[in-house]
Write a structure and sequence with these properties.
heterodimer, A: about 350 residues, alpha+beta, 12 helices, globular, B: about 140 residues, Enolase-like, domain 1, 4 helices, 3 strands, about 30% strand, lyase (chain A), PhnI (chain A), lyase activity (chain A), Carbon-phosphorus lyase complex subunit PhnI (chain A)
């Protein structure tokens, strides 16, 4: 390995950054507010991948990065490191989630019923081109029901356990402060389940979908059915200095449970993330479901998918290839030329030694 | 009627930022000088329990604002989601006032009003959610 020092790029670098930023113009509080209001699902995706929940910061990061998701997530992950951790909240239990959407594709008549919530699942995908010709797109208002939905919905898995279809999990007594944390310690393989689920919660959506989709298409051992999918809000339960537990506010959370038949029982895969992001949760739960016994190097093997769905690391590694590799590439060229020269010389020698026909 | 401490804090943490800041300003007239122990932004790690195997894991961190103040033997504490330090401080002032027995009627009325608004908001949300319930008919 060798390095050469070069200079002369300072002005180009300065102007290149200015060119990038000039294209996007002024960033104002109004622009940030508009991004936050108009693009909630993008904000959710960025917050989930950044593993940092704050809509204002996520909107600002998107504005500053011009919508480049990897740059936005990197900005947020970097900013996060400047902040102290004040508390570890009380773990969220499914039964306490303020639920906006909760469906099952496995069972029609689940306790609590099927509540679609906000979704485009059954809508025609038609782009409103009239807007480009000056018209306004005004969404039709919801006709509210006379009585409210229950804020909390029962667990589908608990109902299945009552019917001997799945085993109810035991209670994890790990104190919140002692739960393994990938932001404080490296992930080692085989990973703890806590590390796996945390890594999936902050994984890149596209990468998670790609590998989850591979499993769904047949490159995995189990075909998923959505047992339960929820979009909800969770309370952040913290403790007052006098010991009173209270909620410091709510955050949007999505979670998916997928199920597959194994022998005479059902196996579950699980994933959740900050913000509302169904595709990521279903894909991640599919990877979780398929992990057990996955062949080495397959898309559903834990080490494979956890390494390749970490967006900041993978995008960072990808873009590092744009940086000067002059010495290493020159070295490759030298090796190639040398090999060619040796080959030609050998050929010549070999030809000259060839007896005349 | 005073509210239990946990409900009071939960309501204040979710209250309208402008309203609590205005109310906090008004409360200062009822309080002696306060000592600020902390006023900062920071993170709260949010764990969750997985429903497949029951494992606790970290979902991610939430940005919060925290304020901790003292007035003699009394303390006030505020923590709210987001980076609004003034709103967290206003929450701590209400908590302090209630702890010290100052302007209790005003504080209680403010908390009641905010709680009522939050309940109405949740009711409205859940009525809209209920409108999306599938009334399944099997043929």
């Amino acid at each position: 390995m060798a390095y050469v020092a070069t200079r002369g790029g300072e002005q180009a670098i300065e102007q290149a950054e200015r060119l990038f930023r000039a294209e996007m113009g002024e960033i104002t509080p109004e622009r940030v507010a508009e991004i936050k209001t108009a693009l909630p699902y993008l904000i959710d995706r960025v917050m989930g991948e950044a593993s940092l929940y704050d809509e204002d910061l996520a909107a600002l990061a998107l504005a500053q990065a011009g919508g480049d998701l990897y740059e936005a997530v990197l900005l947020l992950r970097a900013w996060r490191t400047t902040q102290p951790r004040l508390h570890v909240a009380r773990p969220i239990d499914q039964g306490t989630l303020f639920t906006h959407r909760r469906i099952s594709a496995a069972f029609k008549d689940i306790p609590g019923g099927q509540v679609l919530g906000p979704t485009l699942d059954y809508s025609h995908r038609i782009i409103a081109t009239d807007v480009l010709e000056g018209a306004r797109y005004i969404p039709a208002p919801v006709t509210p029901a006379a009585t409210p939905a229950p804020a909390h919905q029962p667990s589908v898995a608990a109902w299945q356990a009552e019917n001997d279809l799945v085993e109810m999990p035991g209670f994890d007594e790990t104190a919140p402060e002692d739960i393994p944390d990938v932001t404080r310690e490296p992930v080692l393989f085989p990973a703890t389940r806590a590390h796996r689920l945390q890594s999936l919660a902050r994984a890149d959506t596209g990468a998670t979908l790609a590998l989850g989709y591979a499993a769904m298409r047949g490159y995995g051992q189990a075909h998923p059915t959505v047992n339960e999918l929820r979009l909800c809000e969770a309370e952040i339960i913290v403790t007052h200095p006098k010991g009173t537990a209270f909620s410091a506010g709510r955050v949007k959370v999505s979670q998916a449970e997928v199920v597959s038949k194994k022998g005479d029982t059902l196996e579950l895969g699980f994933a959740a993330t900050l913000g509302w992001n169904e595709v990521k949760c279903i894909s991640a739960a599919t990877l979780d479901l398929n992990s057990k016994g996955a062949p080495k190097g397959s898309p559903t093997e834990e080490e494979f998918y956890l390494y390749h769905t970490e967006g900041v690391e993978s995008s960072g590694f990808c873009i590092h290839f744009k940086l000067p590799h002059y010495v290493t590439f020159q070295s490759s060229l030298d090796a190639m030329r040398s090999a060619k020269k040796t080959s030609k010389t050998a050929e010549k020698t070999s030809t000259s030694k060839e007896p005349a026909q | 009627m005073t509210h239990p401490h946990n409900l009071c804090l939960t309501t204040l943490a979710r209250s309208d930022a402008c309203a609590i800041k205005t109310f906090g300003e008004e409360l200062l007239d009822h309080l002696d000088p306060v000592e600020v122990l902390s006023s900062r932004t920071g993170l709260v790690m949010l764990p969750m329990r997985d429903t497949a195997q029951g494992t606790g894991f970290h979902l991610g961190e939430v940005l919060v604002s925290e304020a901790h103040i003292r007035m003699g033997a009394h303390e006030g504490y505020g923590m709210r989601r987001g980076r609004d330090l003034e709103a967290a401080m206003a929450m701590a002032l209400v908590d302090l006032a209630l702890d010290a027995g100052r302007a209790v009627a005003d504080c209680t009325a403010f908390v009641s009003e905010q709680a009522k608004m939050q309940q109405a908001q949740d009711h409205d949300t859940l009525c809209r959610v209920e409108a999306t319930r599938v009334d399944m008919e099997t043929f």
